[in-house]
Amino acid sequence: MTMIAPMRTLGGQGLLVAGILLIASALRAPITGVAPMLGLIRESSGVSAAEAGILTTLPLLAFAAISPVAAIVGRRCGMERSLFGALLVIAAGIALRSSGPVWALFAGTATLGAGIAVANVLLPSLLKRDFPTRIASLTGAYAITSALAQALASVVAIPFALLPGSNWHLSLASTLIFPLVALMVWAPQLGMHPAPAIEPGSSSHRGRIWHSPLAWQVTGFLGLTSLVFYIIVGWLPAILVQAGYSAAAAGTLHGVSQLATAVPGLILGPMVRRMKDQRGIAIAVSLATCVSLLGLWQLPSLAMVWVALFGFGAGAAFILGLTFVSLRTAHSHQAAALSGMAQCLGYTLAAAGPPLAGLARDATGGWEVALVCCAVATALMAVLGNFAGRATTI
Predict the structure, then answer these.
(1) I want to staple 115 with a disulfide (CB 3.0 to 4.6 A). Which of 3, 30, 90, 297 is the partner?
(2) Which CATH superfamily is domain 10-192 in?
């Protein structure tokens, strides 16, 4: 039986969109704000370099572990309630992480990662259900919001921590603003769907998804995008420093790459709506990302060009991957099941990528192997995008 949701007024639709965008702002900022402060955290807490590195990997491991069950949570509790609960978990994780003890730093990081995983899976499903004709544009909008929030968190992390009377605990706690504001704006949505929407045969969606070639093609595209993105985001400053840039210049270029991920959200939505299918654009953004990686390898003196191109290409590929989750499925429950599958496998790859890239660097003394492997992965993305971009559904 399918529950009929109450009709939303124009103002209600606007509040829903605002809630979606604010949820998006809480999905990256609490993670990206940590990386600039790893040095301060190590100095004051005494954790080793390896332990500090775990802080950046823990959220990805949480994404991989929780994503498969997020669709089940959404079906049983309803998407509005599940997203509200996810925001509460994110806020609790940030508070725990900022409380002081070293164990709380790690436990809080894992906790907020679990909350982010649920929201990551359910947002594409929500768009499929409530905005079936605006999937591409709204996916682009929440990608922009997420990118701007993560860039802001990265930029202000160190200055905030160095303010008189402040420290890294307070700087980490400052990202609480994102889930708290989202909770306030999202609260009215709890009354819109008083019961979960159950569709015939919904319990079998997950099994069918895992046996669908198209689902594996979408999963592969999004998974490789995540793998390449997190390797480069994690190691780009080190790559640039080894290429001869100062730490300050490398940090600036890292920020440029993050800001560039927001640009595709401005143009990709209108383009996708006019396309019969998305094969061409999937191939184009994959190859653009490939060119940027080869450029960093062969011509690092033009790093500004390559990091901007990487941010644009990887950001566009990520938006396309999320759009595929909605466009390649027949209804919202199927979209949630595919989102869980794609993000589980994608973030498993992403969690393994940075450590493996670091091992390759230690073994060879340079970043050439990591960059070439990432370039090969983007070429595979183009192949998978050619299949995932077809105008068909599972």
Answers:
(1) 90
(2) MFS general substrate transporter like domains (1.20.1250.20)
